[in-house]
Design goal:
741 residues, alpha/beta, Rossmann fold, Immunoglobulin-like, 6-stranded mixed β-sheet, 5-stranded parallel β-sheet
Amino acid sequence: MLAALACHAGRPQGPSPSGPISAAGAAASADRFIDSLLARMTLEEKLGQLTQVAGPGSQTGPTARAGTEAEIRAGRIGSFLGVRGAAATRELQRVAVERSRLGIPLLFADDVIHGFRTIFPVPLAEASSWDPAAVERSAHVAAVEATAHGVQWTYAPMVDIARDPRWGRVVEGSGEDPYLGSIMAAARVRGFQGRDLAADSTLLATAKHFAAYGAAEGGRDYNTAEVSDRTLHEIYLPPFRAAVDAGVQSVMTAFNEIAGVPMHANRHLIRDVLRGAWGFDGVVVSDYTGIAELIHHGVAGDSAAAGAVALRAGVDVDLVGRTYLNQLPGLIREGVVAESLVNQAARHVLRAKRDLGLFTDPYRHSDPAREQARTLTPENLAAARDMARKSIVLLKNAGNTLPLSKTLRTLAVIGPLADDDASALGPWAGAGRPEDAVTPLTGIRQAMTGSRVLYARGASVRDQDTTGFAEALRAARAADAVVLVLGEDRDMSGEASSRTSLDLPGVQQQLAERVQATGKPVVVVLMNGRPLSTPWLEANVPAIVEAWYLGVQTGPALADVLFGDYNPGGKLPITVPRTVGQVPIYYNHKPTGRPPDPGDHYTSKYLDVPWTPLYPFGYGLSYTTFSYDDLRLSAGRIRKSDSIVVSVRVTNTGRRGGDEVVQLYVRDEVASITRPVRTLRGFRRIKLAPGEAQTVTFTLHPDDIAFPGPDLRPVAEPGFFTVGVGGNSADLQERGFELVE
């Protein structure tokens, strides 16, 4: 049967008797192949294509294994979640293509979020690089490794915009800004999918979670999202549109509801917006048991109703729920649910399998030799180290405390995360293993081979035990300088890991206070999956480095930065508050009729803390300094058919070469709808030698200053605009121009 299917796969290996087959002809042939296959499938086999189950490894015993194989032979399973390994996937694939009636190959899906075995920095850290080419490369490395282990479909990238750092899944996205988020979304899609899904090293990417999952009320995971249509279209949808425009072939629906409609039942957003307005023609997959959860949402009375609602809304694949397979046959045969909806969904799944080349070679991703050759290679580790260095953000460096000298006689490394290899990987670490990770302590020791490195854990991340303080203080007093590694362990970020506090957990601040009191130079390294409110550290510690979770090369990358072999150039992709009481706080907020004024009590501010953040969006320091001057606009007035060129001269005014992220913001001064105080519309990461100057240019088109109008359609209204360019969202040089009819 496999050979019969392969000859109809629509991917010609050479010219036809009458000449080369055109792209349109190949596509038509492929569509005829799928039509023919659907015509031969039973209803249960079609529903099987819409059914994804957890792998046999999540079950126990030979009986469970035999039951899974029986379901594959019966065509009741279309894809698996969490099955890894060339041998394991080959074994299951053989059952599907050689022992089932129609021989339709399986899809193997997994959560390849920031690396497969070679774990890269978490996505929030990668966004701190402001380097989409590097982010694309990290996704490509993940795809190369994952496909070598039999995985064909990843549930990444997560493109949710998050303005509330209490939400644990902020670690999986690119922060608070829709423009930066859109750029990173497209980069990750390109990295995962490459130019040809049929290549043996490309993955089916999934943009998730559609939509507004990052707007969960109270920062509590799985919670409802209450957003206006305007905020939805302006803030939360753009990264999904960018992913679709980049060719993403899968979209996952979100757990949340919007305006009373759960996303797994949201026909308007799935069918009208995603498929209709945007032209998406790939697979829509539910989140884990998300279809069955429509019962808890209160829009379905039982499993059968939940399945009917989700299928009508446009959800193609039921991820581990089995609701479609178990509940829909009776409803379809009774005429309650149209079988045409099943055909439509099955077509999307079969097309994905065809595009991945599985009908031509179902074992293309199950080669043990390639699995070994492509895993944790020196090239992959080098890419992970480079990405980790680019992701580090220098928050403070008073008195040029950093970089440290490798010739220090004694350095104390203190803190509960200094030698935590599991936390170095971060959450959602794929097939990563803690033993693969180089911790901060190990990386520092490798860099300081001629010096004495003392280590003391000092405290736990979570509990109130201070008995380790004494050992930590002895180490600090015996050292010439201290590196203090603090933050959150990896289980404090990610799914179902929301927090009500953004402070350092446990007694870590007390540890920092005691160590700082020794009078030794102290460098704090933060490892965390969300912004932490650390005003005491900012006020008292001379140097602070935001490292997030950097992956398998945490130690070497961190040592490169701490000792000056690499000059940090990362910038924050999310605002850091002074206290959780400021949340939500984000740079592109709307103006108020009473903007903050320290001289006027009756303006928008707080009594107990400044209204400003601890660190603004786009902020990050360097071991050198940069100046901005000669900001120019190519015109003071443009028409809607014109564009405007913005140029600025950036000079490295320090003694070290370094990277600067030049950021472009726009403000619409007067509009029919209130506009943000500023909006990111461009950025570029550049490298400058000491004393070197570079003129950086951006071109603004009318689309770049448009916004959703009263009817939510993009409109660029005539009026005055202010352009700001600088190294972060709060420190800008500005010029103005007018848009005329």
